[in-house]
Task: structure prediction
Amino acid sequence: MVTRQWKALVLALAGAALLAGCRPCEPVAPHPVAVGSGLYLDRTLFDRNRRDTIVSLAAEAGLHWTREEFLWEGIEPAPGQHSESLLERHDARVTKLAAAGIQILGLLDYGAEWSTGGGAPSTDEQRADFARHAAFMAERYRGVITHWEVWNEPNLEKFWHGTPDPEGYGLLLRAAADALRAVDPEIQVVGGAIAGCGRDDRAFLMRALAAAGPGACDIVSIHPYSGESPWDRSDGPGNVCALRRQLAEAGWSVPLWSTECGHSTCDDGVAVEEQPGLLVRMYLSQFAAGIENVISYDFVDDGMDPLEKEHHWGMLYHDLEPKPSLRVVGVLAGLLEGAWVHGHFQDGGVEAVRFEKDGGLTLWAVWAGAEYPENDPLASQRGRVFTLDGLLSSDTVTALDLHGRLLVVDREGGTARLEAGGSPRYLFIQSAGG
Result:
């Protein structure tokens, strides 16, 4: 993959620059970033070759994280009785991911017929049953899976398996968190996993966190899908900004993660050729909004029905052939490994996000953020130019396109200019002393 060969180039570049004429957006404290995608290897438990191919492609792309599901009912089909044959298959996928250097967000979810009747835990006894399951999983994967997410989209009836109950979810989050930390105090508990980030979704989350009580989770997660629209042109940035304010006002000073988001390439979704640019813009603009870890949904298409939206979120087709998006997300993952966001700017239809890395490396990701024709959301915008001032004559300026290919930069004295299109481009500055 292009990721590996460009890593040496990226690490060799260092320096800083001034963005001319652009105004900063609402301030976001500098924070680390991570590029992930849900591999969901529980869907390959009985197909080792498929599992190994998926892990190999994800590792080659340089993905930092995956979200992996552990269904309670299958693992513990009867009280205190665990399916060792199934657990051995889970062990194999965890071992494979760890060996590939891909970090795991473990997802604990859904009811067990013997405890909850298949619905969500709704009594103290049922929540205690779920908490014991959480502790069992934490003990089994102690030191390997350090982050555990409690439930999936509890604000939807489809996944809560009953009428959504924010207080009930909050109590479940607290019970699971206490059980996880009793096994290992260093475990990071991820709570929320709410579908959407609109007003009603945020209200559900805040009620749940109030019921859970202070410190119930170390990280809050959301699923801020934007449909077919570029994420930065949707309600997403405003909703995330509102959520950050609400969390701060309620005393929740915790990182924010996006553990599901993406663009489906079904017949009614985005074109396969548009998905790469839209995905990269999604990652970049979510980082700029204050989200630290973005784990897209999902890495592999779940089916082949062209009309079924749920079948086509992947960067790989169902037969594991790569879509064009795999390459460009791999480039992004390589460039942002170890990076921190240090600013987000907008001016004249251009959006720019500044990242810093160890050694003084500065990376700008830029794109034309104006509205686009409905039939071409990634159309280039004539006259959209990203400008850097304050360069020294000895500074080296390097630019890459979405695919990691070198671009020509317009350089004159202390200024460098790069045309911005709908798909992001990258600009690096290397100072003479870098």
In short: Residues 1-30+339-434 form one domain.
